[in-house]
Predict the structure of GCVT N-terminal domain-containing protein.
Amino acid sequence: MIDKEQLIKRYCFAKETKWKQVSLLASLVVTGEDAESFLQGQFSQELRPARVGPINYGFWLTRQGKVFGDAVIVRESDDVWRIFSGSLSATALVERLESFIIADDVTVADETARWQAWRIAGGDVAAWLPNWRSETAAAGGTAWGWEEAQPLPGGSALIVASQPPPWPKNWPEATTEEFEQARIAAGIPRVPQDLGEGDLPQEAGLDAVGVSFNKGCYLGQEVMARLQSLGRVRRRLVTVAGAGDVPGVEQVDLWQGEKRVGALRSRVAGFDGAWLGLALVSVASCDFTRPVGLVQGDGDAPAIDIVAEVTPEDAV
């Protein structure tokens, strides 16, 4: 049984701040007199200036409350809003938004090609971020940055700018694997890898940071309200670990005896020949006090040895 706190500590960036350029799939600007009310009716998070700050994380949901994608929306003014997403392409997001524009004074423009994004993590993030924003603005530049809705232990943020920032000399560049190890060890889900089409925000615990239950109507709101009232979901995202190579095939099922209890989502190489992962499991079917077995592909491959139990404490 792997100790969760030791797992997090092993991959934490708290002692050394690092950075890594990441994919920014969509950067849109939404303008017009009706921009605020339009986005308020589409996004799962509260956006009204009187109630929240200018930067907010949330979801685009289907009518059934399933996750279409996630994004951060930044309010520049009453008539100018920016959308940044790492889970949806600009084309998909533009099509989604424009399909709901009927008589609204709203224009959606794709500016993805103008911007780049970086993730930073470590103990220096909180102090560096506001200074960098101020220095960039003083130099006449345009940039955005925010601490992540679910930060890595020690702190993490995402920044967007046209050019790389002047990184502090003692900040090395991290690898993609390092960030994935820290994220998965901490049990932090990512859209769409861990929570995608067909999944609910509550199944990964992301309703706490990405869903407003007080804002009124928006697409998928009725399902969110019903789940909030019932207080339970049928599946939960949990942290798992296994011995040997990282399972390479896309579909990896979790089994207990003859019963399929879930499926592996994110996975990354870990320590001492082990790998780490996040899996979505059935609350009713999975016995959280017992190990689970993994079967790759169509079920004909042999089960992989399990070195860590899936426990309630691992649930995101």
Q: What stands out?
A: The first strand starts at residue 18 and ends at 22. The longest helix spans residues 125-138. Residues 234-316 form a domain with the Elongation Factor Tu (Ef-tu); domain 3 fold (CATH 2.40.30.110). Residues 300-316 have pLDDT under 50 and may be disordered.
